[in-house]
């Protein structure tokens, strides 16, 4: 225990020093594309089988790498075969619904509908939408935010559920679904975005926000916000402002080596415990926000620094190392210091694909 303030820095004191970031000059389009291909192949080799959030993050990363399209045949030729095989297999066997995290693969189901026009994809999206609207398992906080669990609002939800609403709204020509996602972004921001710092907390518990500024929470919310802005929603101005505040705050807390701690604000009990998946997701959001004209010089500089840091943690076999395991809401900051980060995780692979895809658009 550290003296005087009751902080337990035992895990932080044993954290490994950061690896040297890649030289930006070495991150050519060819290197970015080859690395992204290794990351995707490694994700496939994991043997992912569930219709759940980790799989959804991988699928969305693969679609993003292939290039978002509006039904162009070129998109389907570029999509990794795993994407269609996974979705089609689950549609044949029956998709699992029971938690908002089950909606994450639905964004790609919507993309496949947009790319092919095949009705089975739309039918599956309609089933997911009906579940979201009418199932008793979906509870909402007083301000309308969908709860991750009854009594708790988590940042994850705006990505897992929000991207489904955005993508299906786009491909089905239903702008009201896009607006529903925008409303969720703002409802979550009202609860989770700190009014002074602009950073997002992981979640709330029994109506009280727990101000632990978890890295992946900031990745999820930032990516959902850029997806909404790219869709051109009617709430773009307020969403743009919460995103701008968030990303500038993240840039201000970014270490020179590019990768934020698991809690991004330098909290002592987690200082030096790096978390790569959040850095990848935040980098992707920064690249895309800059392309939308949001603080472009500042955010591009921070995004490239994050990507250079992430690149150093991509193993030869395509594993994004130092990705933390699935993390439930921790009531104390110390809880985030003991989450294991020594195994491959699908969300690490998927968020890395998002980062490399966004960087490739910057360079080509």
Automatic annotation (TrEMBL):
Q: Name one Pfam family in it.
A: Glyco_hydro_88
According to the record, the residues making up region (Disordered) are 1-28
Q: Which UniProt keywords apply?
A: Hydrolase
Q: Tell me which SUPFAM superfamilies the record gives.
A: Six-hairpin glycosidases
Keyword S-adenosyl-L-methionine applies:
no
**Polar residues bias: where?**
8-17
Q: What InterPro entries does this protein map onto? A: 6-hairpin_glycosidase_sf, 6hp_glycosidase-like_sf, Glyco_hydro_88, PolySaccharide_Degr_Enz
* Domain of life where this protein originates: Bacteria
What's one GO MF term for it? hydrolase activity
Q: Tell me one GO biological process term.
A: carbohydrate metabolic process
Please tell me whether the keyword Hydrolase is annotated for this protein: yes
Record's protein name: Unsaturated rhamnogalacturonyl hydrolase
Q: Which organism is it from?
A: Nonomuraea polychroma
